[in-house]
Amino acid sequence: MALMHIDAEAIDSPVAVEDVAKIIAATEPLEVRLDEVHAGPVAATDTTMQFTLNRGAPGFAYLEDNETLLVRLEHSLSCYPEASPHDETKILAYHVMAFKVTEDIAVTASALGAWVETNAYFLAFPYVRQFFTQLTASLGLPPVVLGYVKREEWPFADGTETSGSTTQSAQQITAE
After folding, report:
1. Residue 164 confidence (pLDDT)
2. Do residues 29 and 97 make contact, with C-beta atoms less than 8 angstroms apart?
Protein backbone atom coordinates (compact mmCIF):
# COMPACT_ATOMS: atom_id res chain seq x y z
CA MET A 1 0.00 0.00 0.00
CA ALA A 2 1.34 3.41 -0.98
CA LEU A 3 2.06 5.83 1.81
CA MET A 4 1.95 8.82 -0.54
CA HIS A 5 -0.92 9.71 -2.81
CA ILE A 6 -0.29 12.52 -5.30
CA ASP A 7 -3.38 14.34 -6.47
CA ALA A 8 -2.98 15.93 -9.89
CA GLU A 9 -4.90 19.16 -9.71
CA ALA A 10 -5.28 22.29 -11.79
CA ILE A 11 -2.02 24.13 -12.47
CA ASP A 12 -3.21 27.18 -10.55
CA SER A 13 -3.99 25.29 -7.31
CA PRO A 14 -3.01 27.29 -4.25
CA VAL A 15 -0.26 26.03 -1.96
CA ALA A 16 -0.10 26.92 1.72
CA VAL A 17 2.88 26.77 4.06
CA GLU A 18 1.07 23.99 5.96
CA ASP A 19 0.98 21.84 2.80
CA VAL A 20 4.76 21.96 2.54
CA ALA A 21 5.18 21.39 6.31
CA LYS A 22 3.19 18.14 6.03
CA ILE A 23 5.58 16.85 3.35
CA ILE A 24 8.60 17.74 5.50
CA ALA A 25 7.08 15.87 8.45
CA ALA A 26 6.34 12.78 6.31
CA THR A 27 9.74 12.41 4.60
CA GLU A 28 13.38 11.75 5.47
CA PRO A 29 16.33 12.36 3.12
CA LEU A 30 18.08 9.13 2.10
CA GLU A 31 20.63 10.10 -0.56
CA VAL A 32 21.79 12.61 -3.11
CA ARG A 33 23.53 11.14 -6.13
CA LEU A 34 24.72 12.12 -9.55
CA ASP A 35 22.37 10.55 -12.10
CA GLU A 36 23.71 11.76 -15.44
CA VAL A 37 26.45 14.09 -16.71
CA HIS A 38 27.53 15.43 -20.10
CA ALA A 39 30.71 17.51 -20.28
CA GLY A 40 33.00 18.99 -22.90
CA PRO A 41 34.69 19.51 -25.07
CA VAL A 42 37.26 21.56 -23.15
CA ALA A 43 37.92 24.38 -25.58
CA ALA A 44 40.17 26.52 -23.36
CA THR A 45 41.65 26.48 -19.86
CA ASP A 46 42.37 30.18 -19.43
CA THR A 47 42.81 31.46 -15.87
CA THR A 48 40.27 34.21 -16.56
CA MET A 49 37.39 31.83 -17.07
CA GLN A 50 33.86 33.09 -16.63
CA PHE A 51 30.89 30.86 -15.96
CA THR A 52 27.11 30.88 -16.02
CA LEU A 53 24.93 28.39 -14.21
CA ASN A 54 21.38 27.67 -15.34
CA ARG A 55 18.84 25.51 -13.57
CA GLY A 56 16.40 23.32 -15.46
CA ALA A 57 12.93 22.39 -14.31
CA PRO A 58 13.04 19.85 -11.47
CA GLY A 59 10.97 16.68 -11.55
CA PHE A 60 9.63 14.25 -8.96
CA ALA A 61 8.31 10.71 -8.86
CA TYR A 62 7.00 8.40 -6.15
CA LEU A 63 8.11 4.76 -6.10
CA GLU A 64 5.38 2.80 -4.32
CA ASP A 65 7.39 -0.42 -4.05
CA ASN A 66 9.93 1.04 -1.67
CA GLU A 67 7.96 4.11 -0.50
CA THR A 68 10.54 6.51 -1.86
CA LEU A 69 10.03 9.99 -3.29
CA LEU A 70 12.60 10.94 -5.92
CA VAL A 71 13.50 14.49 -6.95
CA ARG A 72 15.59 15.11 -10.09
CA LEU A 73 17.46 18.40 -10.47
CA GLU A 74 19.06 19.67 -13.68
CA HIS A 75 21.89 22.20 -13.94
CA SER A 76 23.95 23.39 -16.87
CA LEU A 77 27.24 25.21 -16.48
CA SER A 78 28.98 27.10 -19.25
CA CYS A 79 32.65 27.99 -18.76
CA TYR A 80 34.44 30.33 -21.16
CA PRO A 81 37.50 32.59 -21.24
CA GLU A 82 36.74 36.24 -20.62
CA ALA A 83 38.46 37.25 -23.87
CA SER A 84 36.98 34.43 -25.96
CA PRO A 85 33.36 33.52 -25.09
CA HIS A 86 33.07 31.29 -28.18
CA ASP A 87 35.57 28.81 -26.58
CA GLU A 88 32.89 27.46 -24.29
CA THR A 89 32.94 24.24 -22.27
CA LYS A 90 29.46 23.01 -21.38
CA ILE A 91 28.56 20.74 -18.49
CA LEU A 92 25.07 19.33 -18.01
CA ALA A 93 24.37 17.44 -14.78
CA TYR A 94 21.36 15.75 -13.23
CA HIS A 95 21.27 14.94 -9.52
CA VAL A 96 18.66 12.70 -7.90
CA MET A 97 17.59 12.98 -4.29
CA ALA A 98 15.76 10.12 -2.60
CA PHE A 99 13.43 10.66 0.36
CA LYS A 100 11.86 7.89 2.44
CA VAL A 101 8.14 8.47 2.95
CA THR A 102 7.60 7.66 6.62
CA GLU A 103 3.86 8.17 7.06
CA ASP A 104 0.63 8.23 5.09
CA ILE A 105 0.15 11.51 3.29
CA ALA A 106 -2.03 12.84 0.51
CA VAL A 107 -0.44 15.73 -1.37
CA THR A 108 -1.00 17.78 -4.48
CA ALA A 109 1.52 18.07 -7.29
CA SER A 110 1.64 21.82 -6.58
CA ALA A 111 2.51 21.21 -2.91
CA LEU A 112 5.29 18.81 -3.95
CA GLY A 113 6.57 21.42 -6.38
CA ALA A 114 6.61 24.02 -3.61
CA TRP A 115 8.40 21.57 -1.28
CA VAL A 116 11.07 20.93 -3.94
CA GLU A 117 11.61 24.67 -4.37
CA THR A 118 11.64 25.58 -0.68
CA ASN A 119 13.31 22.56 0.92
CA ALA A 120 14.64 19.77 -1.29
CA TYR A 121 16.61 22.11 -3.55
CA PHE A 122 18.38 23.68 -0.58
CA LEU A 123 19.37 20.23 0.73
CA ALA A 124 20.84 19.27 -2.66
CA PHE A 125 22.70 22.45 -3.51
CA PRO A 126 25.88 21.74 -1.48
CA TYR A 127 26.26 18.48 -3.45
CA VAL A 128 25.69 20.33 -6.73
CA ARG A 129 28.27 22.96 -5.73
CA GLN A 130 30.85 20.29 -4.83
CA PHE A 131 30.23 18.40 -8.07
CA PHE A 132 30.87 21.43 -10.29
CA THR A 133 33.99 22.42 -8.34
CA GLN A 134 35.47 18.92 -8.63
CA LEU A 135 34.51 18.36 -12.26
CA THR A 136 35.81 21.69 -13.54
CA ALA A 137 39.13 21.05 -11.74
CA SER A 138 39.28 17.51 -13.19
CA LEU A 139 38.71 18.90 -16.68
CA GLY A 140 41.72 21.22 -16.28
CA LEU A 141 39.55 24.31 -15.90
CA PRO A 142 39.89 26.69 -12.98
CA PRO A 143 37.67 25.18 -10.23
CA VAL A 144 34.26 26.82 -10.21
CA VAL A 145 32.94 27.70 -6.77
CA LEU A 146 29.23 28.45 -6.89
CA GLY A 147 27.82 31.12 -4.63
CA TYR A 148 24.89 31.07 -2.26
CA VAL A 149 21.37 30.12 -3.19
CA LYS A 150 19.52 33.00 -1.57
CA ARG A 151 16.13 32.11 -0.11
CA GLU A 152 14.89 35.67 -0.48
CA GLU A 153 15.39 35.41 -4.26
CA TRP A 154 13.61 32.05 -4.52
CA PRO A 155 9.91 31.27 -5.12
CA PHE A 156 7.85 31.27 -1.91
CA ALA A 157 10.43 33.49 -0.19
CA ASP A 158 7.79 35.28 1.86
CA GLY A 159 6.25 32.04 3.15
CA THR A 160 2.73 33.04 2.17
CA GLU A 161 0.18 31.13 0.16
CA THR A 162 0.77 31.36 -3.55
CA SER A 163 -0.71 30.03 -6.74
CA GLY A 164 0.46 26.91 -8.52
CA SER A 165 1.96 28.93 -11.34
CA THR A 166 5.14 29.34 -9.31
CA THR A 167 5.33 25.61 -8.59
CA GLN A 168 4.91 24.77 -12.26
CA SER A 169 8.68 24.46 -12.47
CA ALA A 170 8.57 21.06 -10.70
CA GLN A 171 6.84 18.41 -12.78
CA GLN A 172 5.81 14.88 -11.93
CA ILE A 173 7.83 12.40 -13.95
CA THR A 174 7.22 8.73 -14.60
CA ALA A 175 9.56 6.55 -12.60
CA GLU A 176 11.07 3.67 -14.57
Report:
1. 32
2. yes
List Cα–Cα distances, 146 to 83, 116, 126, 143, in angstroms.
21, 20, 9, 10
1 against 114, higher pLDDT: 114
Instruction: Measure the CA–CA gap between 125 and 133, rounded to whole angstroms.
Output: 12
Number of Cβ atoms within 10 Å of the Cβ of 40:
9
Q: Which residues contact 121 (CB under 8 A, 6 or more apart)?
A: 58, 73, 149, 154
How many domains in the chain? 1
Dihedral sign of CA atoms 147, 34, 98, 112 in order: positive
Please state, in angstroms and rounded to a whole number, the distance separating the CA atoms of residues 41 and 18: 46
Domain of 49 in residue numbering reads as 4-152+161-172
Q: List, in sequence order, every residue forming a beta bridge with 6; answer none if it has no partner.
A: 107
Q: What is the pLDDT of residues 104-152, one digit of tens each?
A: 999 998 899 999 988 999 999 999 999 999 999 999 999 999 988 877 7
Q: What is the DSSP string of 58-99?
A: -EEEEETTTTEEEEEEEEEEEEEETT-TTS-EEEEEEEEEEE
For residue 139, the domain's CATH number is 3.10.420.10
pLDDT given at position 3: 84
